[in-house]
Amino acid sequence: TTLFRSDVDGIALIPPIYGWLERGSGCVAAMDDTGVDVYGADGESLMYSVPGAGLEAALAGDFVAVYEDGRTRLYDLEGKIAFDSESRVDFAAGLDGQVIASDGGWGESCAWLMNPDGSAASGRFQRILPLASGRYAWLTMQGIEYYSADLDRVQTSWNYESLRYGLMDAAGNALTPAEYLEIRTLGEHRLLMVSEEGVYLADLDGGVIRSWLNPQTEAATGEAGGGSTG
Hints:
The chain is globular. 25% of the residues are buried. It has one helix at 215-221, and strands at residues 3-4, 12-14, 20-23, 27-32, 35-40, 46-51, 56-60, 63-68, 71-75, 81-85, 90-93, 99-102, 111-114, 128-132, 135-148, 153-169, 182-186, 190-194, 198-202, 208-213. Strand 1 and strand 2 (12-14) form a beta hairpin. The N and C termini lie far apart (53 Å). By secondary structure, it is mainly beta.
């Protein structure tokens, strides 16, 4: 795998010696049998290397996660270790330099927001999704534990119909309850929030600007669909 300049055919910026290469927002990470090399976003300069055989690597925003024998190290763009754990931690790009960290299985309360310096920015949630600057969706879902004879351990059967989303800030403070079927961004300063009662246009604090209620909710509340409620 290699990286070529888009404006000059046939000129390789990164030599074709790697078995894995991925480009992120602030760097390009490449891996071969000897370790991980991290290049600048333009691919023209080697910023740092993490030597070692049998490594795994993944990108999360401006960070590179390196895995070795169950251990996790998260490197910033300068090659400094921002986070170090003796167990497996997975990462996803957050917002405003943050990353979303997770050290458990699907549905478990194992996800938290991490600051650029590796410190925890929030408590733990079942799942976290980035929305807009300083805003994330958090998830709740109910499950029932049972013993699996095949796996010889306790498993959780998750009720996907119970899945609901709430809105929170970059410190993990809830701005709305987890009562929505879906939350998505509309431009830079608006959110679309869908519940069983209707659809809402909201600001980034979850304040409803306009609502479109379903007929059952209209009848129960006496509100006309499409009316402004905030």
